[in-house]
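Sorry to interrupt, but I need a hand with the structure work. Can you supply me with one protein entry, sequence and fold together? No commentary is needed, just the two lines. Leave the record below and I will have a look.
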Amino acid sequence: MILETVRPLTYDDVRHVGRYFREGIPVVMDLTAVADDEAEQFVDFAAGLIYGRRGDMERLSPKVFLLVPSVLATPGTVTSVVKKVRPRDYGEALYVGHYFRKGIPVVMDLTAVTDDQAKQFVDFAAGLIYGRRGDMERLSPKVFLLTPAGTAVTAPR
């Protein structure tokens, strides 16, 4: 699966978000480095993109969004979806593992759990990705992207 992470510095970088989405590539749009007014412009652009090309946009944290086109690119193999899991307690760690073991990238949103539970989840995820040769990227303080082996995540823009 291909998944792009775009971290724009100015509104001029909006073309990266649009290009990948138009090509059927899911995009994590990380707006933490731009001012609030520019972040609003990006969100408005993304809303128009979603409306015009069909798809879905989900807020992962105050300034991080996941944009998923309705028709996904297929680079040689079937493209899977990205699953967002927002657990309420550590007992839901198995859901993270369940999707990840199936080869589905997981956005693990830990904003609803305590800091101690979040640490447990991160330790669990570290073992999971190490054991399955995957990767984990922090998208915001309590939101992580877990990518299974064979998932192409390109360098941020």
User: Anything to note?
Assistant: The longest strand covers residues 55-61. Helices lie at 14-22, 36-53, 93-101, 115-131. The beta strands are 2-6, 27-30, 55-61, 64-69, 83-85, 106-109, 135-140, 143-147, 152-153.
